[in-house]
Design a protein that fits this description.
4-stranded antiparallel β-sheet; globular; 16 helices; 8 strands; Heme Oxygenase, Chain A; Jelly Rolls
Length: about 450
């Protein structure tokens, strides 16, 4: 059964879709600025050269997107969602043009055209991987979900275990905080979409959770404000999406999923399940996250953001089940429980995937360095050679296979995170593992390098 209720075909003809993709992917906010860091919330550099291949696969039936195209798709979807949120210029004179361009009506219309198909392509895999059978009752779901949460409470933190083994704990924790920034700097924005309309006392119960997130109108207590303070104390820039180019695909997918199921109210019951899982699980997860920050920055490090969630989300998890799910199922019927359970499982699965991707990236960053020779299995017959001028920047991306990157002339910096650069000069090379985010910038007058897949 298709719990997503996603359209099997677009409402728009192929030519309209292709034109909409071109408009959405080539808008000013996605253009490279020659910098790895965004100087305003209206800058979201992507790689328009990936568009033709992406559109070809996005408009095909079935099949998962490879890592490079999944990243491109989630960046495109994330930008479209956030063009419905409010950001204001921080330097009125220099940023007003970018502000107007970011909210351009044609770009927003194009995003609306491609959104249903894009959501289906990026999240449709969950229909194949998450199967639910039988009829659910409230008692069965309560027993099942409490068992899942109890196991989570008792489990160790894989991140903490990895952190103890790393050489550079500080950079690893900073990279983790950067991943959180994709969502936490605009925290609860998706939730706000669900307190519009009129569906009875349950709306007010959800609004109670929302206003908790917003500090009951006190800016200093707003959760995103607490996260900004954490970023400053961790020596990071708290401007929204300053680290845009360093968000992993999994991190973007978590924020996009909540925007998707909140923006399409046909998915409201799935939203309830996902909300319940995230609120109830954060009460346990945030304890480990606080411990990770203290391990990297010392016992006196600022962990208020995570400590606040450890406290409040025990309450929010209970509210989500007792004050939202129970009365809504009683109102709408047990038939909606399948969708609620689906949302619970979907966000749980997405979170696991995002964590695995982040941990793999952190482990690679800690040991990423030059190699003496190309690894065995390098397919030299598929080598691509590039020559670029000084200052030419490649927006961060990832590859679909392990690749060998070697400089023939000049020098280049491989930028693997905000905290990791590896300079390669003539004769030096490095393996770039499949799916690992990285960019590059030429640091000599000219640089010639070659890239070849590794079998």
């Amino acid at each position: 059964m298709n719990q997503h209720n996603l359209p099997t075909a677009s409402l728009f003809d192929e030519e309209t879709q292709r034109r909409a993709y071109a408009i959405a992917a080539n808008q000013e906010c996605l253009a490279s600025t020659g910098d790895f860091y965004a100087q305003s919330p209206f800058s979201r550099p992507s790689r328009p050269q990936d568009l033709p291949q992406f559109v070809s696969q996005a408009m095909s039936e079935g099949g998962d997107l490879p890592p490079s195209l999944a990243l491109f798709g989630h960046r495109l979807l994330f930008t479209g969602y956030e063009q419905e949120l409010v950001f204001l210029p921080q330097k009125t004179t220099s940023q007003m043009k970018s502000y107007r361009s970011f909210y351009d009506s044609e770009a927003r219309a194009a995003a609306a055209v491609i959104r249903p198909a894009l959501e289906k392509k990026l999240f449709g895999w969950m229909d194949r991987e998450i199967e639910l059978s039988g009829k659910w009752t409230l008692d069965a779901f309560r027993e099942y979900s409490e068992g899942v949460l109890e196991d989570l409470e008792k489990s160790d933190s894989t991140f903490l275990r990895l952190l103890h083994e790393l050489n550079d704990k500080k950079s690893a924790v900073q990279f983790f905080i950067v991943q959180c920034a994709s969502d936490f700097l605009c925290e609860a924005s998706a939730m706000a979409r669900n307190v519009l309309g009129n569906y009875g006392p349950e709306l007010s119960e959800l609004f109670k959770i929302l206003i908790d997130e917003y500090g009951y109108g006190v800016h200093e207590k707003k959760h995103s404000t607490l996260f900004e303070e954490l970023m400053r104390d961790a020596e990071l820039n708290p401007m929204p999406h300053y680290y845009w180019q360093f968000y992993n695909t999994g991190s973007l997918s978590l924020a996009n999923y909540f925007q998707f199921i909140s923006g399409d109210h046909n998915q409201f019951f799935r939203y309830l399940g996902a909300l319940y899982f995230t609120e109830a699980s954060l009460a346990f997860i945030t304890r480990h996250q606080s411990a990770a920050i203290k391990l990297a920055f010392g016992r006196d490090a600022n962990t208020l953001y995570f400590d606040e969630h450890t406290h409040i989300d025990t309450h929010h998890g209970r509210m989500a089940f007792e004050n939202l799910i129970v009365p809504i199922v009683e109102k709408c019927g047990t038939g909606v429980l399948g969708e609620i359970v689906k949302g619970f499982e979907e966000f749980r699965t997405l979170l696991d995937r995002a964590d695995e991707e982040m941990l793999a990236q952190i482990a690679w960053l800690d040991k990423a360095d030059k190699a003496d020779n190309a690894p065995v299995g390098t397919r030299s017959d598929e080598t691509m050679v590039f020559t670029e001028d000084e200052g030419e920047l490649s927006v961060t991306h990832c590859h679909d296979l392990d690749e060998w990157f070697e400089v023939e002339k000049g020098a280049i910096d491989l930028v693997c995170s905000p905290f990791k650069r590896v300079r390669l000069e003539a004769g030096e090379g490095m393996v770039l593992p499949k799916g690992m985010l990285h960019g590059s910038i030429v640091v000599s007058d000219k640089c010639t390098y070659r890239v070849a897949p590794v079998a």
